[in-house]
Structures are given as structure tokens and as C-alpha cells.
Design a protein that fits this description.
The chain is mainly beta and about 180 residues long. The protein is built from two helices and ten strands; from the N terminus they run αβββββαβββββ. A hairpin with a 5-residue loop joins strand 6 and strand 7.
Length: about 180
């Protein structure tokens, strides 16, 4: 019994000492920005309303976890008519799929200060695809600013159908301020 109590105490203390701080995305300073070509012209937009958590300690990145959603209904391209169309079923179908989800399976240290490598999954419209991209984590007050860029194929996620004038490639930039 004494050994069991000692084992539980050591395990609890170890978890406490090595626990990652749990951070939450803030509305101010957090967004997902995208750029896609339509008829050869770059069109940009943002998603906001980020929710979820990030467990991150620069001294122990292998235990880091990123689990964040963006509110798909917040899509904003500075064109209300286009934004309403993007919310419909042929694009993001926000009534059926209200969030866009990114979750890590592995975080690794990168080759320079504040540089890391994200490996995980991205889910859009119920379709989940593996995703890997470099990102930075910069200390900001009591939290971190996480920034990264990656490209996806909109067709992989059934966004926009076979629309010819719309490019298949989408450039995505994440900026997540988490405290």
C-alpha cells in the first residue's frame, strides 16, 4: 500500500512538473487568412472565431498539442455577396460543417530559434487530410504568437466543385495569438 501511494504521488508530481501550459486562442490577433486566384486575380479572405487549445512549452515541444477550430461562418473577403455564396453547400456549407479543424499529431523543433514543424490533420467540410508545415512560436506576454503558412488543394476538401476559373491551389496563413 505504501509503494502504491508513493507511486501515485511521484506520478502526480511528474505530471504537474512536466505539464504543458494550456493556451487559448484570443479573438484579437488570431485569424486564418487565405488567398486563391479567381480568373487569374488573387482574392483573399479571413476566418476568425478561433476556439480550442494549444499546449506548448518551448523546452518540451514533443509534448505540444495544437487543437484549434475556426468558425466557417466568419468567412470574410470584404464582399458580402461573395461571402454569403462561400457559406453555401458548394463551398464551405457552414450549416452542415460549422468549423474548420486543425489538430496536431506531432510537433518537432525546427532548425532555427522559434521554428517548429507541425504534423497533423486539417478537416474542412468533413474531409480530413494530413498536413505538415513549418511554423514559428514567438513569446508574447503570457502566451505565444503562432504563425505558419501552407498550401492546400480546395478540391481535396470538396470546396468550390469543378469551378474552372477558380484556382485549385489555396495559400493559407495562420496567425494564432494564444494566452
Amino acid at each position: 500500500m505504501k509503494n502504491l501511494l508513493l507511486s501515485v504521488a511521484v506520478s502526480t508530481l511528474t505530471n504537474f512538473v512536466f505539464a504543458q501550459p494550456k493556451l487559448t486562442p484570443t479573438d484579437a490577433g488570431s485569424k486564418v487568412h487565405f488567398v486563391i486566384k479567381n480568373f487569374g486575380i488573387s482574392v483573399g479572405g479571413d476566418f476568425t472565431g478561433l476556439k480550442g487549445f494549444i499546449e506548448f512549452d518551448a523546452a518540451n515541444v514533443t509534448a505540444a498539442v495544437i487543437n484549434v477550430t475556426a468558425d466557417a461562418a466568419t468567412v470574410n473577403t470584404d464582399n458580402n455577396k461573395r461571402d454569403e455564396h462561400l457559406k453555401k453547400d458548394d463551398y464551405f456549407d457552414v450549416a452542415k460543417y460549422p468549423t474548420i479543424h486543425i489538430v496536431s499529431s506531432k510537433i518537432e523543433k525546427g532548425s532555427s530559434i522559434n521554428a517548429y514543424l507541425f504534423s497533423g490533420n486539417l478537416t474542412i467540410k468533413g474531409v480530413t487530410k494530413p498536413l505538415k508545415f513549418p511554423f514559428t512560436a514567438t513569446k508574447s506576454g503570457t502566451g505565444y504568437l503562432f504563425t505558419g503558412n501552407f498550401d492546400i488543394s480546395r478540391r481535396d476538401f470538396n470546396v468550390g466543385g469543378g469551378t474552372f476559373p477558380l484556382s485549385e491551389n489555396v495559400k493559407v496563413s495562420l496567425s494564432i495569438l494564444a494566452k
